[in-house]
Amino acid sequence: MRSYSSPSSPIANFDRRNAAPMTRSWSSITTVFVAVSGTAAVPQFAVAATTEALLPHNLSPWGMFMNADIVVKVVMIGLAIASLVTWTVWLAKTIELSRETRSAKRRLDILESDTTLAQVEHDSANARDPVAQLIHSAVRETALSHGLFDDGFKERIALRLERVEQAMSRRISRGIGVVATIGATAPFVGLFGTVWGIMNAFIGISETKTTNLAVVAPGIAEALLATALGLVAAIPAVVIYNQLVRNITTYRALLGDASAQVMLLMSRDHGRRGMPISRAAE
What we know:
single chain; mainly alpha; rod-shaped; protein transport; TonB_ExbB_1; transmembrane transporter activity; MotA_ExbB_proton_chnl; transmembrane
């Protein structure tokens, strides 16, 4: 008996003919998808690595200083030195003014208790404080004017005392000009560091081609640190300068009182001797 094979249906033939091409198509699509995905992933990884490399590892003030540009570092170091100079001048001048003011007050009390020029000279024979120097200067001018007690005698004494006062004022004021300069210029120096740091931050943005805050923030923080140091140097300098000026004004007033007291004693002393004392200097 002869067997007959069943004829194949058109649908089965179509499936067999198209199965292999469809398999190859799906493989191609999968390969393309993987390739595209890999290509897209590489730039993202590179950007992340670049961003991480640009970030400083320490955002503390010291870490920002170490990662700052060389110009910003120089600005910060200069401001730190200026602040150190300010506090050094404050300490030195405070000690000096306190010592000189106490000495002037003590000598002025002695000067007011004495009644004659000879007694004042005896009490201040070995003293070297400012008021004692006023007394020595007046006594020296009296000795130089021996036999010349004319109408210009009092004027010569007043002129010599004024010169001593000015010399003492210049000596006690030495150094406070530096503090005034620091107080006036430190904010602008800090502002220069800020401008330079922000400029570097924008340069970093252009190089990385990203506006990610993690890339921009460190440069701006370094710039603002320079401004903060400028204010730290300037604000105490202004306060210290004003305090020193007030103390120096008080010291000068004490010298003026001592000079006037010396003039009174000399006028009384020479008045008792019947020597003419002019009122020209009054």
